[in-house]
Amino acid sequence: MSAEPRLLVVDDEEVVCRSCSRIFEGQGYRVQTCTDAVEALRLAEEQRYSAILLDIRMPALDGIQFLEQLRLRNLDVPVIIITGYSSVATATASMKLGAVDYIPKPFTPEEISRAVQRLLQEQQDLGALERVRRRNLKLIGAPERPEQGLAGQHLFLDDAWLRVEPDGTVTVGAFFSRSTAATISSVRLPATGDQVHQGLPLAAFGWPDGRQSLLPSPISGEVVQVHHQLGRGIGVGWGDPCRECWIAGIRPTRLAAELGVLQPRRVLLACAGEEVTRQGERRLADLGCEVRAASTPQELFEALRDPTLSCGLLLLDEESFGLEGPQLVRRAVAAAPAMKVVVLAGREALLEAVYRQEQIFYYAVAPFADEEIVDILAAAFSARPSAAEALAARPTPSPRIRRIRLTNRRGETVTLLVGGGLLAEQQGAGKQLVAGLLARSCPLQVTLGQGPVSPTDLLRESAGCDRLVLLLAEDTGRIPGTLVRRTGSRLLQAAGSGGSQLVTLALQPPAAGEGEVPGRTATALGQLLLHELLGGPGA
């Protein structure tokens, strides 16, 4: 952001123009005012402004027409609407044309100042991220390019989201309900330069009662930018998680191979009202959803034939379908049993009791107006273990894996040595790893036991294999469950064994002492070990 931001105020009321000039010139802004919208459009073409403050009701050219002409001229200057004639129709139309905020008259100096400051701060943050991306690309070379059509799309892994940027880097963040986010007491973020791995923790969120939630990284790669403001909890808007609650920028290392694990959030919006549909589509897209609209029962059931929507979310507008709505829900549930159904209640909510007799997920009153849609999406799409999964995830006595030796698909003899009792034979990462090796018909030997790995163990094992992988618990000061990969060993070099054959995987322990990692972290660790033993990072 420049030291002297420039604003253009467009309003046919001279008193509003003078008021805005007094407010912002006193804060160090350069302000230009115009009571003629046609003249203001010419100024916007000829000069560069940090933002435009725009009235809706003006003669000759109203605010909506001004915005349309601005976008037709490919001018992307941010616009804040200021008007005394607020309505859903004008708000929807202006936001559809790219207005970034909507301030009703009469406004206070604090209200209009906050809107402009919020806009310019967001521009500054996005500009900083882009500069870091370009600097890192220059230093480390061009990243893996996104698949055609993937740029800008949001994909999810549990509560973590990912957006592929046009330059091939990715932005990742968290999606929580507003109530969950409001009570977060601490945030731990990765550091620039860290290597992160898909499924292993990217960030940790804490609550006052001592609970901690580990957010999995949706992709593997190098962290090139961190949203430190999120870690401080300053000015973060959890009501807009896919824009403001990004955690890091990452240069991916295995994007194409890891995309299959990620899922889009698909929403079917059944609504007959064109204006309500446009408003819903825009907001859902802002929240990372892929949206398909249906305005009639025929279009609804045609959409339900698409298998990609079968596990998504159906938002059905009560007023659009009247008394026919409950029967439509019944048929929709029969056609797609895994789809969750949310009814968007009418003004009178006359059919609430009838709808609740059907298999609906939620009955919502005006969820877009009061932003409850954020909480609905968090509840509908967040992964929560079933009772059976939770029972299976509980630690049970199981022998620990001490050593695995195998011949991989490259013909290499590879040995995995495990310290700290990190892998159990019959559960978690250990069970998954052995099952994955057997499924690939890899000849292997599994030795049980636990305890620290000594230098003698390393020397003995290195003598009989092409590559040695050491997995151990090590306090690296990082988020629990994160992993640091190192290659080489002075010990083996001194013994004449060649340092390049040792790979050390240091796992930040989940707690003091020994023990395996829980939940999704264990699943991701099993997959990472399988990849490492079968051929390593280049496989």
Number of domains: 4
Low-pLDDT segments: 128-148, 385-393
DSSP summary, beta strand count? 25
**Any guess at the CATH architecture of the largest domain?**
3-Layer(aba) Sandwich
Structural class by SSE content: alpha/beta
Report the radius of gyration as a whole number of Å.
28 Å
Strand residue content: 15-25%
Largest sheet: 6 strands, antiparallel
CATH topology of the largest domain: Rossmann fold
Structure in a nutshell:
The chain is of the alpha/beta class. The chain has 20 helices and 25 strands. It has a six-stranded antiparallel β-sheet with strand order 6-7-8-14-13-10.
Please provide a written account of the structure:
This protein is an alpha/beta fold. It has 20 helices and 25 strands. The two termini are about 45 Å apart. The model is unreliable at about 130-150 and about 385-395 (pLDDT under 50).
Observed structural traits:
OB fold (Dihydrolipoamide Acetyltransferase, E2P); 6-stranded mixed β-sheet; 539 residues; 6-stranded antiparallel β-sheet; Rossmann fold; alpha/beta
